[in-house]
Amino acid sequence: MYLMSNYIRLSNRYRIANVKAPRGTNIVICARGPILPGSISTAKSRCGTPNCVCKASPPKLHGTYYRWTGVIDGKQTTKTISKQMAEECKRRIKHYRALQRELERTLERSLANAPWAEPQ
């Protein structure tokens, strides 16, 4: 797996992963569209205004707020985004996870065909 991971190269928009197998075979894995790692969550909240309806019993909370959480420059980051952006992010996250699954399947096949797995 270490040898394979050294050859993974993602294109400038993270749309295609090229994996060079040790025997000179190139394997190309394409995403179905733009990709985005991370996840989308929703939240409702209370404000600081003393007489607001969010303080009532039962409370009527503010929101629904959409949030993307992922890693940027090695740090976990959360960004509040619009509902439309959240839908687009969900689509891109779906493409990213499909790409990850395909890469895992490719690596499993490569490991099954590794030189030490072949009869001599």
How is this structure best described in words?
The protein has 120 residues and is α+β, with helices and mostly antiparallel strands. Helices cover 29% and strands 31% of the residues. The strands form 2 sheets. It has a 3-stranded antiparallel β-sheet.
Helix-strand pattern: HEEEEEEH
User: Which structural class do you get from the secondary structure elements?
Assistant: alpha+beta
Quaternary state, please? single chain
Largest sheet geometry: 3 strands, antiparallel
- Percent range for β-strand residues: 25-35%
| Approximate shape | elongated
Quote the distance from N terminus to C terminus. 21 Å
Report strand order across the widest sheet.
1-2-3
The low-confidence parts are 1-17
Number of strands: 6
Q: Give Rg in angstroms.
A: 22 Å
Give the averaged pLDDT, no decimals. 81
Total domain units: 1
Task: Specify the number of helices.
Answer: 2
Work out the helicity level.
25-40%
